[in-house]
Amino acid sequence: MQFALIIFLLAFLPNLVLVFAAAPSLPRAALAGWTVLVGVLCSLVGYVLSGVLLRPLSRLQEQVEKGHLSPHTDDPAEVRALRAAFADLLARLGTEQTRRNAFMATLVHDLKTPLVATGHLTRALTTLPLPEPERREIGAQMQAETARLLALVQQMADAHRFERADVSIQPSPTDLRALVDDVVRRVQPQAQARGLDLRVEGHGHAPVDAPVLERAVVNLTENALRYAASAVELQVTPQGVVVADDGPGLGGSLAQLAQPFTSQPTTIAGQQYTAGTAGLGLFIARRIAEAHGGGLCYSRPPPPDPALPGPSFTSPPEPVPLPTRFTLVLPEVHP
């Protein structure tokens, strides 16, 4: 309506000026009749032109309301660009909704497992006549399940905070080797439970927020322990902190998987894995590295070509580096 009014005024006002300019030579009745006729004609022109010009936008509005955008060859370039922007927005919203639905399904599963286990343990502890050693064992299992729940809730809280706000850090000179050694001591029971070789190499210092960076290293190390076949290695290098393992690697790009709502099951090297909170761990690690002025990098070399001859050694070969490598890139790492 406003567009039609603008066209009407643009057409009517110049004619009105001409009419009043010629007023002395025209009778008043003819002047009034001509003014009315010009007004009616300008109104029709405004209505018709506004309908023609706004038809592509009206059609686009209907398509957006229905959620289905189809191109039209008679649309102007501006409307085609607007349709493409709406299509991209709808696609991203659909992808985001799918990811969040998958995440919620996995989250419910991850919460349900320790809760069910805790319920069974509590029932056994309160209803069965158990000797003292078994009661202590059940208590230890209940503590372990509670720790799993708390870790999941903490990751959820971290992911929500890191997604919506910048990570606040307070860097200070830190011994990266000591930080990595502390992480290894924390996760050593998990490595022993899976029979994995967990080792540390390298030395270095850097200005970092030690508690925040330790959280990123723990996330990457726990992911490595989940998927490794036989060994996990933590390294302090001039680039930062590297967490390597001999697992199958990521089932997609790091940019796709290091998202706060990526947790749907994935197929890696022909084997089905339940991602669980792995997507949260990668996302948190990436945001922490970015807060330190660095980033999170992933590398995995291609498998060797079986047609090529293998290397020949005149002395015992050096250990082969573990293929799956995540690097928390940090600036200003010094020996």
TrEMBL record:
Compartments, record wording: Cell membrane
EC number: 2.7.13.3
InterPro entries: 2C_sensor_his_kinase, HATPase_C_sf, HATPase_dom, His_kinase_dom, HisK_dim/P_dom, HisK_dim/P_sf, Sig_transdc_His_kin-like_C
EC top class, as a word: transferase
Enzymatic reactions: ATP + protein L-histidine = ADP + protein N-phospho-L-histidine
The keyword Transferase is annotated on this UniProt entry: yes
Membrane topology: Multi-pass membrane protein
Pfam families the record matches: HATPase_c, HisKA
N-terminal signal peptide: none
Stretches with biased composition (Pro residues): 300-320
PANTHER family: SENSOR PROTEIN CREC (PTHR44936:SF9)
Domain Histidine kinase: residue ranges: 106-334
Name of the protein: histidine kinase
GO function term, MF aspect, one: kinase activity
Chain segments annotated as transmembrane: 31-54
Gene3D superfamilies: 1.10.287.130, Histidine kinase-like ATPase, C-terminal domain (3.30.565.10)
Taxonomic superkingdom: Bacteria
Keyword annotations of the record: Cell membrane, Kinase, Membrane, Phosphoprotein, Transferase, Transmembrane, Transmembrane helix, Two-component regulatory system, Virulence
